[in-house]
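Dear colleagues,

For the upcoming journal club I promised to circulate an example of a predicted protein-ligand complex. I picked one with zinc ion because it came up in last month's discussion. The inputs are reproduced below in full, followed by the predicted structure.
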Amino acid sequence: MTKTKQLANNLIDFIHNSPTMFHATSMVKNNLEHNGFIHLRQEDKWDLDQGGKYYVTTNDSALIAFIVNTKNPEKDGFRMIGAHTDSPGFRIKPNSQIKTENYLSLNTEVYGGPILASWFDRPLSIAGRISYSGEHILEPRHTLIDLEEAVGVIPNLAIHMNRDINKGVNLNSQKDTLPIIETINEQINKDYIKEIICEHTGISMDKFIDADLYLYPTEKGSLIGMDKEFVLAPRLDNLAMVYSGIGALLGAKHSSCISMMICFDNEEVGSRTKQGADSPFLSSTIERIMIALGKDQEDYHRAIAKSFLISADMAHAYHPNYPEKQDPTNKVLLGNGPAIKVSANQSYTSDSDSAVVFADICKVANVPYQTFVNRSDQPGGSTIGPVSAAHLDVRSIDIGAPMLGMHSCFELISTVDIAHTTLAFKAFFQV
Ligand code: ZN
């Protein structure tokens, strides 16, 4: 198998083991620790060494990893890549049991903006974070859970009962998308979810338990295409960029700067949480690195002025079945490298200054790059770049590997673009 396909297969494994933002963060954490990174706790005093490798997490769902390649960031700056750990889907509500005739369903609400229809008729499982009372009342304990096996399904309505189903269906997220998990003829007299949690985690039933639980498809992603040119997998937005960024951080020969990979949570719901891009998590972490290196407030601002941020999120590729949806002069193609995302209304941070920087990085890395712009009559989405830039007046660019079917339960990218993006990120830390 070629190196490129191996890299794509490793990405598929990473995604398979990361059903939620909590699991993605835990996977990244394990990988970092395996590579000698030291866990810094937010409540501790930080001591940083030249050449030291560190990471800090918040809420178990966001993480910043960095390498101290300089003791003078006010001269050398920070090189940062940002991505997000969360993906659109369904969150299980508290008191989620619903009995209809002999069906037991789970009450869910939509997280972010998934393509609802793509979740129908798929084997679904449940994963997330469990919290339960600890020794001190303000410090509950946490553990992760992943049922792994398929325990539910959102069944479609037969075409015989909706002859217009192929003309487009208006789906109601309270009524049409609840998964069924069991048939039961008797009255329900137990809390199924709590029982499953206790059984899987060993937490005793008398503890007060709360949970951040999500549905996820159990099918593993795969390489497809006549020559395995494509990766079809869930949550490629944005675990593909988390994977590339961490791969580059671990694999690069770093120049003298602070190299940093940032994995925010909650991008899909607007980033406005303590673990999202619209929080002080990044700016505080930079400030604390500066303090630990003995720097003052002016040094902090000098360091930011010397820094650069690549905000890495997926980009829309040209869809052969919908050419009318594309910008007429900027067509992003699968396999042709990362796309620089440009927007007049600044929903992306790229400008001519940062575009030249990224284009030169791609040249050094010997990878192609492209430019993405929305059609003028389509607003498009946004990402973590502009939100981070509002907290940190840092030069920044928005880029992403091209993809089809963004926010579908299974999304499609090119096998080779993972290698392209990882090489570009590596070059960014090296130049
Ligand atoms: Zn995204």
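Two points we might discuss: The mean pLDDT is 96. Residues 97 and 189 are 11 Å apart (CA to CA).

See you all on Thursday,
B. R.
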